[in-house]
Design a protein that fits this description.
Blueprint: E1 2-12, E2 19-29, E3 51-52, E4 61-62, E5 73-76, E6 79-81, E7 86-87, E8 93-94, H1 97-100, E9 107-111, E10 114-118, E11 123-125, E12 132-134, H2 145-152, H3 161-186, H4 201-239
Antiparallel strand pairs: 1-2, 3-4, 5-6, 7-8, 9-10, 11-12
Protein name: Epidermal growth factor-like protein 7
Domain EGF-like: 60-92, 94-133
GO molecular function: calcium ion binding; signaling receptor binding
């Protein structure tokens, strides 16, 4: 930056009789520092076909014209990286594992992107989900008291013969005691039919039900006694 400075001078002519005025302009140069903020422009390279920029200044994202399906990802231009169970340029083809590697011990069922194993009747799938193991046998049906007594019976020896005889006598005593109780219970029912409707039918009906239960117990004990006596007779014949 320059600024003009004006100055004037007076001079005399020859012989000292004339005065002359002289004007002179002088420019003084001054410097001033100015700071301005200017936008900075960046230039990025253009990506090659099949690539693009993604959250970066580099061309590091592949472009697939047809999108990848079934969970696949675009690995390079127009080529997908597929998940397990799928193949193809765009992961559009299912892999039939059952026809390629036979992964199951019994039967293989192919599914979309996977497979599952099925066992034949009488088997179940093991923990590895590939092999089969046989099912456990069903539980045995419950036995009746007479069958249980037959299964628990042991032929008496010379040391245990007296014990079986005492058991038979004990069962006989129980049968006699139950028969006596049954007679006492059945005694009030002699007046069951002649009584009026106002009397307590439900109470005596419950007595009758209890009596039938006592009869069942007597039949069961009698059956056990007969079975043991038959066994004792067989053992006696074998000893003779």
């Amino acid at each position: 930056m320059s600024r003009p400075l004006h100055s004037s001078t007076v001079t005399t002519g020859g012989g000292g009789h004339r005065f002359c005025s002289t004007y002179k302009t002088v420019y003084r140069v001054a410097y001033r520092q100015v700071t301005r903020a200017a936008p900075v422009s960046h230039s990025y390279p253009e990506c090659c076909p099949g690539w693009r920029q993604l959250h970066s200044h580099n061309c590091n994202q592949a472009v697939c014209v047809q999108s990848c399906v079934n969970g696949g990802t675009c690995l390079r231009p127009n080529h997908c990286a597929c998940r397990l169970g799928w193949i193809g340029r765009h992961c559009q083809t299912d892999v039939d594992e059952c026809s390629e590697q036979q992964p199951c011990s019994h039967k293989c069922v192919n599914m979309a992107g996977s497979y599952r194993c099925v066992c034949r009747e009488g088997y179940r799938l093991a923990r590895d989900s590939h092999s089969c193991e046989s099912l456990p046998p069903p539980p045995a049906p419950p036995t009746r008291p007479s069958q249980a007594a037959a299964n628990d019976y042991r032929p008496p020896s010379s040391d245990t013969g007296g014990g079986v005889t005492e058991e038979v006598q004990s069962l006989k005593n129980r049968v006699e005691l139950l028969e006596q109780k049954l007679q006492l219970v059945l005694a009030p029912f002699t007046s069951l039919f002649p009584m009026s409707l106002d009397e307590g039918v439900s109470e005596k009906t419950s007595f009758l039900s209890h009596s039938f239960q006592q009869l069942d117990r007597i039949d069961s004990l009698s059956e056990q006694i007969g079975f043991l006596e038959e066994r004792l007779g067989t053992c006696s014949c074998q000893e003779n």
